Amino acid sequence: MSAGLSALALERRRAAWWFLLPAVVAVLLVAGWPLARTIWFSLTDARLDETAAPAFVGLSNYLLLIEDPDWWNAVRNTVVFAVASVTCETLLGLVIALALNERMRGRGMLRAAMLIPWAIPTVVSAQIWGWMLHDQVGVVNQALLALGLVERPLAWTADPDLALWAVVAVDVWKTTPFMTLLILAALQLLPDEIYEAADIDGLGPVGRFFRLTLPLIRPALMVAVIFRTLDALRVFDLMYVLTGNSAATASMSVYARQQLVEFQDIGFGSAAATGLFLIIALATALLLTAGRVRLGAAEGGR
Amino acid sequence: MSARRLRRHIGRVLFVLLMLLIAFYTVFPFYWAIVTSLKSGSALFGAEPWPAHPAWGNYVAVFRDRPFGRNILNSVIVATSVVAVSLCLGATAAFALGRVAFRGRGVLLAAILAVSMFPQVAVLSGLFELIRWLGLYNSLGSLVFSYLIFTLPFTVWVLTTFMREMPRELEEAAVMDGATPWVVLTRVFLPLMGPALATTGLLAFIAAWNEFLFALTFTLTDDMRTVPVAIALISGASSFELPWGRIMAASVIVTVPLILLVLVFQRRIVAGLTAGAVKG
Amino acid sequence: MRAALALFCALITTLPARAEVTLAVSCGAVGIEAQLCREGAETWARETGNRVSMISTPAGATERLALYQQLLAARSPDIDVLQIDVVWPGILARHLVDLSDRLSEGDRAAQFAAMIENDMVDGRLVALPWFTAAGVLYYRRDLLESYGRRVPETWAELTETAQRITDAERAAGHARMWGFVFQARAYEGLTVNALEWVNSHGGGTIVDPEGRITIDNPQAAAALAQAAGWIGTIAPFGVLNYAEEETRAVFQPGNAVFMRNWPYAWPLLNAEDSPVRGKVGVAVLPRGGGPDGRHSATLGGEQLAVSRYSQHPEEAASLVVYLTSRAEQKRRAIAGGLNPTWRDLYDDPEVLAANPFFGALRDTFENAVARPSAATGTHYNQVSAEFRNAVHTVLSGRAEAASTLHRLAARLQRLQRAGGW
Predict the structure, then answer these.
(1) Is B157 in contact with A226 (Cβ distance < 8 A)?
(2) Superfamily name with CATH number, domain C136-298+373-419
(3) B41 vs C9: CB contact, 8 Å cut-off?
(4) ipTM
(5) Which fold has domain B65-279?
(6) pTM (two decimals)
(7) Most exposed among C63, C148, C203, C399, judged by the fewest C-beta atoms under 10 Å?
(8) Out of the domains of life, which is the source (chain C) (predicted)?
(9) Could you tell me the fold of the domain covering C16-126+300-361?
(10) Which chains touch B (3 or more CB pairs under 8 A)?
(11) pLDDT per residue rounded down to tens, chain A (302 residues)
């Protein structure tokens, strides 16, 4: 950086802080108190039904949490769910986005159709699926029986071996559009020349995808994967509506909600919520490292 | 040569089949919701692919029993405001985070992301207190305010990523002409980021449109409810009975505006392609 | 900052208008239940010169409770009168006004004792009974007749009859026939169903009224083992995720011989387009075998309470007394089939004309078994969750009944020591 530029650079830096200020203030205002409160309560014995002021109990809520097999069962369910659903959504999202990026007939309709699942409120779509997966009168089993694919109706949401996968299938249905749209936006920002160059080099479509497209859209893809993973690890309403509090599918959020709301145990429930936060932070750190996302990196440009 | 052409044809057919399969997977449940919304009584428990006697009564009932039109309006107001605020704040922040090198940038990005790592139910009580203290309880303002907790980190991150991808030469040329950072952002970058802005806005819009837990907790009266809560509060003759037909009718009604929105927005998404300057 | 934010938000919203004495009442959402509540409240408002505004809250019990807790913990005056579930008085008691002086001794004696007892918390009457409900057995009268079977008296008889009829019907080509459907999803409804099995075998009520943990006993284990035997034989495996409506979805199209459900299903099963219209009977739930066997039905129902943070507690209490009065409950029983809590209404010819099975099942409603919500107070939800999770494991065949109940008792004891009820 030359001395001549540094005055300009300083001015840019000052401007940058003013640009940041509104968003940072907004985030602090909305999230500061709720988050601080949750972390504080996780260190106390607060209960919704106690009138006395909560007492500080140190880390004992966390020790109880670590000892609870139900919590670890919820962690296992959530991680399996998140890995399975995010993987499927990313692959499916890539395929659909690449297809929608090609010039072909019916592209507009396909794009609108693909977005439908994401547009239906989860509260409702989970219930639609709940009925479609009903073992006796649901359309899924009726269709499978009619096609002769199964001999007798499957208890999709009741069978512990099937329930988690049924939830994954519904989540893939529901959130693949999110992936698709973000990947599509990244694809649309790519200039056409690079492909022209690739045609000259004689790369096939597969080579073109792995050698050119994927590296270029990787930053956007990683952001999409990170946000999907955050959402998947916090999954709540799908499990709750489809299978209630069943242990076979209970996620970490379902567990935390049960402690916080149903059992009125604010202290322990906040510890579970904070534990969930720590697990997500760990997962995000892993993703950032694996995806070689450099947070502090200078502006890219090509 | 002909073998290669054959392979190409087979590939083409397989591709079309795959697309049809995906389209079926995504559209069928919505189709099923429409079918269900046209059934009533015992027909709901059957699985025929199209009702023998389509009953439109469910659609009439949705608007008759509750201020459903008002609920849709509320959702539109809330989702639009949230998207407007998030995009304004997100775009300026993304410019700073994506284009300017300064110490603490990574920490700031990580901190903003951390806000999205707590489960909704854990921040519910804190937000509830905050909203009562601000005097926003049972108003649409409470929802606009609380939805920022999930739309803002998302827009900041996505826009920062896309902002980084902008070619450096464009900015340098503008700076040479004496453009301030504000001008660079609003006149140079934002017009180029059409697809990114449209996509981010659309995703944030739908997230706000579909949110349930905050909307249920921070509003109380029917005239302040948003669509997902209104649908969830549709109940049957007794607390156990679920009026499927009406719930599905309401879902179909609220999904249609979103599909229209996509059709409008997708012109923007495609328009970005030909916006020009990037391709030089 | 605060003012600026409020101003900003005022631009995109309108603040609700408030009149002098307007009571905010939370009862059902829509449908006949809400309609009757609204009519009743509006009649009261006309007579007393006040106003009421109806607040719709979620129909699902857990969601509604969560919303109430949020509002009450914040001491919110936004709701004056609350409709609360039969198991909530203990949980919400400290937020509710004592209504003892609103109901005379005579009027208390004239209502179901179980309901009044249920609403007494530490000597305070925190809510007034509004309507009651209890589990009943729906059966296919036509099928029982054609196979020459009587309405089962014991669970063993039900098992046998269900198996016999299912086998015969399936052999005759009705492949989707099942014997018995009930609610075994991991939610409060499973606690209700399992308590009926356990109690009907003489196995107690999980925690007795004095707060002692009684669930670890052979009768309870026998009851659960029997229920586990139904899964996959007379009941589809899917019942493990059925709530009320999922069971009705099997029974109403004619695919089950027996169904355990609440009285709400009666008018729906006899609706004009119902395939089983006129073919259904209602009976008390069977009893367990052995000397301790008895007919048991779990107590359900709703009460009305007044929030301690109401700005108009006098008017709110008067509205609650009006809505729970004998005359109002009679109107609701006739128009909506909601079970009254006043005893003499079960002899009332008009009520019986509208609900023919009320008379025969009066004992069931009157002697329904309460869940241990009073004994466990604010810990009830936790006890219920532990119990239903244990039952769910047994039903899905992943654990054996006696040892599961033994472990359950140990967990409940830990809970009792830690929280203390």
Answers:
(1) yes
(2) Periplasmic binding protein-like II (3.40.190.10)
(3) no
(4) 0.82
(5) MetI-like fold (1.10.3720)
(6) 0.85
(7) C148
(8) Bacteria
(9) D-Maltodextrin-Binding Protein; domain 2 (3.40.190)
(10) A, C
(11) 444 557 777 777 888 888 889 999 999 988 888 999 899 999 998 887 776 788 888 899 999 999 998 899 999 999 999 999 999 999 999 988 888 887 766 677 777 778 888 888 887 888 888 888 888 778 888 888 888 888 878 888 888 888 899 999 999 999 998 898 888 888 877 777 777 776 667 777 777 788 888 888 888 898 889 989 999 999 888 888 888 777 788 899 999 988 888 888 889 999 999 999 999 999 998 988 887 776 655 444 33
Pairing of strands C22-27, C81-85: parallel
Q: Give C104's contacts (C-beta < 8 A, 6+ positions apart).
A: none
For residue A243, report the phi and psi dihedrals to the nearest 5 degrees: -135, 10
Q: What's the pLDDT tens digit per position in B249-266?
A: 888 888 887 777 777 776
All residues of chain B having their beta carbon less than 8 Å from the beta carbon of residue A187 are none
* Chain-chain contact of A116 with B254 (C-beta, under 8 angstroms): no
- How many angstroms separate the first and last alpha carbons of chain A? 19
Inter-chain touch C12–B216, beta carbons under 8 Å: no
What does the domain layout of chain A look like in residue ranges? 69-254
Interface contact flag, B144 C9, Cβ < 8 Å: yes
Interface contacts A/B by beta carbons within 8 Å: 303
Q: Do C16-126+300-361 and C136-298+373-419 share a fold?
A: yes
For residues B68 and A84, give the distance between their C-alpha atoms in angstroms, rounded to a whole number: 38
Nearest-Cα distance to chain C for B83, in Å, is 14
Are the CB atoms for A100 and B270 separated by under 8 Å?
A: no
Q: Tokens for B243, please give them.
A: 């009026």
CATH number of A69-254: 1.10.3720.10
Sequence-separated (6 or more) residues with CB below 8 Å from residue B92: A19, A20, A22, A23, B185
Q: What is the largest CA-CA distance in chain A?
A: 79
Residue pair C361/C282 in contact by the 8 Å Cβ criterion: yes
